[in-house]
Structure formats: C-alpha cells, structure tokens
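Morning!

This is the sequence you dropped in the shared folder:
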Amino acid sequence: MPGTVLLLAAAPAGKGCLVDAASVLPVLAAVPPAVLSGTETANVVELADPLEPQAVLTRLRAAAAAPGPLTVFVTGQLQLDRRQRLPHLALARTTPSTVRYTGFPWHWVREELRLRTPGTTTLVLDLHADPGTWEWLRANPLDSGRNVAVYGRIAPPPSSRRAVAVPAYMKAVATILRSGHRPEPSVLHQQALGRVGVEGYADLVLAAPGVGVGVGPGGFAPRPPYRPEGPRPRTSPEGILPDGLEAPAVVDPHTAISVAVQSGRHPDADALAAQYEQGAAVAHGAGSEEALHWAEVRADLAMFAGDPVRSCRTWLGVAAARLSAGQAVDAPAVEAAVDRAHHQWGQIRDAEAARELGAALAELRSRVPGRREGALDHVRRQLRQLQTQG
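The structure's back. Tokens below.
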C-alpha cells in the first residue's frame, strides 16, 4: 500500500519571522518519495508558506484520510493566540494580534489525526517559539494525539530580535534521508539531533513513539520527562496525600502527582514525591534505584513548575549519586542526569545561581562528557560570559 507524505513549511512574512522555514523544502523535495515515507511508493504533498488556515486544514484532512502510512514533516514557528492562549502554527499572514484568525491551531492536528490507526502516523517537527510561547511550553505539552508518533525539536526564541533561525534539525533529517536510506524514526531522530550539535542545547526535544508528545529537554534525554505512565517504583503505595489532594481511589502515586501538576498544584505534587523518595531511601537506601527514581521525578516536577534552579540542582545530585554508587560515566542513566542538568542550567536567568550551579556542572561534564560534542566547552564558555556580568 502506498504511503502519504505531507511537507509543510510555514512562517510569517516580515519582521515577525523567527525561522526560514521554506528553506528546508528543496532539501526535502530532493529525497525520493519512497524514502520520505518508508514505503515502496508514496504520494507527496508540499505546502510552502501557506496563507490560509483552511487551506492547510484541507490538505491535512485529505492526507489523514488516505490509507496506508502517513508521515507529516512540519517546519515553522509556534505562537499563542491572545484570547485562549492556545498554540498555533504561524502562517504567512500571522501577526501577534491576529494569531487566532490567521494561524493554524495546533489542536486541529490532533483532531484530524485522532481516528487514524495506531502505528501508521508519524510527525517530524522542527518548530521555533516566540518568548511567550516558549514560557507556555515549559509547563504544557504540545499535544498531537495519542495515536501519533512524534519526533523533532522546539527551539527557543533567538537571542537577537532580528535573527532568523535556520531549521537545522529538519535539514539534518533531509540530509540523512538523501542518502537513500530511511532509518527507523527513533534512529533518524537521534542522528539528526547529533548533527544539530551544540546549538541545540536549549531545545525542547519531542520524542514519543505512538503515545502523543513527550517534551524533554535539550536533545540529550534518552528517556522522556516524568509522565504518569512512566517507570513505577517497587515501594508499596500508601495513598499518602498532601492535605486537600483528594484521590481516594489512587493506587499509584504517579497518578495523584499527575493530577496535581495538571491542576497547577506543583507544591502538592512535589510534597507527595518527596514522601515517596524519603520512604524509598529508608527502605532501600538513598542511592537505590527506588530512591533515585523519585529524585528524578522531583527534578522533572521542578521543571514543570518553572524552577530551573531546583531542577538543575536535583539532576546534579542524581548524577553524583549514580556515580558514587559505581555507575559508569557513560551509563545511560548517568548521561541522562547530566544532560538534563545541563539543559535546566541553560534556563536559569539568575546570574549568581547560574555561576554556582555552572561550576558544579562543569566538574561533572569533565567526567561525563555525554554524546554531544562540545558539551564541556559550552559550559565553560557560558561560565566565562557569566563572570563578566559581575
């Protein structure tokens, strides 16, 4: 059965443009359709800088209705509408004040793809966010639906207001595919992240094979951030809930924590995780996997709460504990902890806290360089800049 491929590149015209989205289309178009799709034959639809949301919806709806595998490549920028604060893909006529009418609502993607057979749909995304959207994304997942496998990255706002970014992730994907070989999506994703290099340290990474989108930091993380359906500790739940958190039927504390986070009750979520961390430490030891699991949960909870200082500090502690327990410097869990600490450090705006934690991060990076070239140099360079800030 032939596959279907939708190539969508969109960005506002004029000074509101954050990324040269259309520049990636010639590279993607040079890839044989069968390689883009991963099927013997494929139909390819290309949308370059579309003007109208309805035009995008029509093409997406037709692609979603086609039988066989569907792969959607999206390059562009996200903006929030001012009324509902919902993410939209900015189109050619989109401005900050007209997002609701001229942008493509991201929940339309979810709605159009929700009836597709699980395992047949893949989204590959290279998205850039303006400052307001970037802050929103730190607390909210970009929901594309539970039946869709999603890979890619969301880049933060450029350092200069006049800068127009290059869709480096999508160009890396296209370059890899031009070889004529299409790796499995997860492998392709990791290869593309490797080519993005140091410039991707601040990115949010999208990697969710068939269960929606998990937003994880920095292009490093081999596992997604904390989610209710994630690893379960072996400690027995006691239903130990902070005051006011009603969950009488809760068996798994992860569910109660998820409820608290989704309702904005971040202190309650952290308090519950802290109780389980303490219980696991007493029962199994502070360096046990059970205790470290809950420490990692608390690090992710700090990220969701918008507290990069606490998140970074916690990830540094997890990495140090794993190393002290004799785990290898290239063990996936050790590398993940340092990589996540690195990402959260990049989100810290307080110079004093950044200098303090940066020194600890540099020491760890000298022992755990990770799999992305230039990680230690990146920390040292940023530390030198922080020293000049007094």
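Headline: The CA atoms of residues 179 and 322 lie 39 Å apart.

More detail when I'm at my desk.
O.
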